Amino acid sequence: MTDTTTLPQAAGLAALTLRDGALERDGRPYRMLSGSMHYFRVHPDQWHDRLRRLAAMGANTVDTYVAWNFHEQVEGERRFDGWRDLERFIRLAGEVGLDVLLRPSPYICAEWSNGGLPAWLTARVRALRTSDPAFLAAVDAWYDELLPHVVPLQAAHGGPIIAVQVENEYGSFGSDRAYLEHLRDALRARGIVELLTTADGITADMLAHGSVEGAMPTFTFGTGVATARQLAPEGAALMCGELWGGWFDHWGERHHVRSPQSMIGTVDELLAAGGSVSLYMAHGGTNFGLWNGANWDGVLQPTVTSYDSDAPIGEDGTLGPKFEALRAAFAPFHDGALPVVPPAPRFQPEQEVPLTAEVSLIDAVRSLPAGDPHATPLTFEDLGVADGVVVYEATTHLPDDAVLTIDGLHDRAGVFVDGRRIATLERDGETSVMIGGAARTAVLTIVVESLGRINYGPRIGERKGILHGVRLGKRFVHGWSHRVLPLDDGLPLDDRLQLGDELPVGEESLLDDWQPIGEAGADGVAGAVIEVAEPADAWLAFPRGAKGMVWLNGFLLGRYWEAGPQVTLYAPAPLWRAGRNEVRVLDLDRLGTGVEVRQRPEFGDTEEFIGS
């Protein structure tokens, strides 16, 4: 544990105090008017701009989670530089006049891969979010590294942090009181002196199991101010720690929106009741790379690349009617005029360029080195891979008209026999396929993609890949080699490029290792060159493409999928260069014909949704 005697001592009392069921600051009644914005979903060169927009909206606080797995993808290798410079983000917030509500729970949900828990940890520890010694030891080691970065930035030491969350919606997950107490005590022992909070849904059971003595409970809801008032414990201030002003999207569903009138109705009701608010999300940002999470509701529900969440500050920084409604609602709580609204973002001129196919998927994966063979297929966790694509290959005897079955497929697999694609299988659909023809010896190749790690509920920490085995009829196939596609954001990390690092001019792309060694097929790798006059924001679309991942100048923007609803991918200005820009696409199903540069997003057909 950190030696707390070496930490700066509190210069005074915590910034926020509770008196008679209300928040006070410097002896005066206080309202927290907060909005959620996650530094890990916004390019760091745009942090300042987005924080300025949040302040101009009338917020006095920015709320951010801390995603553990974003900082510690490899156990013991913790990063706080570049995109992961949490201290810089917090200081920038203070510079634009915002306080910070920090939410450093080991678990964050956030529709983020694995709910923020590192894949190496969930591969090893089963009793997640409990007082299990193995889990607490990992948390303590993480806090020993994390908290010295933020303790000096508390309001008590002149910084902007005024509150710190202990755990996130724990009342909807577990009932381990010792775990919550350990987290509370761990924060205090390492120098956190500001107001502690928790956040839970609006039921008595969630509140009872998610609260801990010494932390002010807050609520999460889309509507439900009256219920929250009834449930709020005596002496606690009324606060909605997450007021859902919009909602996220899953692939294969409609784009969720919430009308400005519906959102502001709940905000006004809460403010009229004397409450404080944190809007989730004020600026949603993007699930760049492969950081999107997934939910489970009888089937896997992977989250799309966009995390726009129909927020008042759009994914590209544009401002909508919700922004104006909140600015008007928050203005009476400020002593002076609100900050000036920043200028609108600039966008690239629209154009379309062709995609040139370079190599088929099967040739691309076979050009990669294979590891030592194993009797049975290994999971992503066995291979030290967090997300992305793993290729399994075995040579075996096929009986007449064999039926191939993947037992425990997580999540999606392209199946090839002797280099010819015969099927695409999915965990919640068909996991078997008939292999026609006479008995023979053949090479089986199975390309498995993780669609996103579950971020909420009892299935968090699920493994990825082929969990149990591959059968031909009743017989298991043994003798498998494994290849890991060189995608960034996965484990092992690529030494040249990680999420948050831009590809230096003149450096080769991550995909340049895949040299054309055969005829390109319907799936595979393709490239395009986009010439621009100067860096500016853009939205990219891939007409007639089926299911792919996209790199811009070596940076993995995320995934597209014809299942919808999302059509366009956000390509922020800092990723562009004046002149030549390279786009690379890996489509696991069917390459499109070109790349469209657009000035507006297309999120698909919409439906009104308040959250649940």
UniProtKB/TrEMBL annotation:
InterPro entries, alphabetized: B-gal_1-like (IPR026283), BetaGal1-like_ABD1 (IPR048912), BetaGal_gal-bd (IPR048913), Galactose-bd-like_sf (IPR008979), GH (IPR017853), Gly_Hdrlase_35_cat (IPR031330), Glyco_hydro_35_CS (IPR019801), Glycoside_Hdrlase_35 (IPR001944)
Stretches assigned to the Glycoside hydrolase 35 catalytic domain: 25-329
Entry-linked Pfam families: BetaGal_ABD_1, BetaGal_gal-bd, Glyco_hydro_35
EC number from the UniProt entry: 3.2.1.23
PROSITE patterns, A to Z: GLYCOSYL_HYDROL_F35
The Beta-galactosidase galactose-binding domain, residue ranges: 531-581
Domain of life: Bacteria
Alphabetical UniProt keywords: Glycosidase, Hydrolase
Class of this enzyme: hydrolase
KW Methyltransferase (keyword) present: no
Presence of the UniProt keyword Hydrolase in the record: yes
Record domain Beta-galactosidase 1-like first all-beta: where: 377-483
Reaction it catalyzes: Hydrolysis of terminal non-reducing beta-D-galactose residues in beta-D-galactosides
Gene3D superfamilies recorded: Galactose-binding domain-like, Glycosidases
Annotated family: Belongs to the glycosyl hydrolase 35 family.
Protein name: Beta-galactosidase
Organism whose genome encodes this protein: Agromyces neolithicus
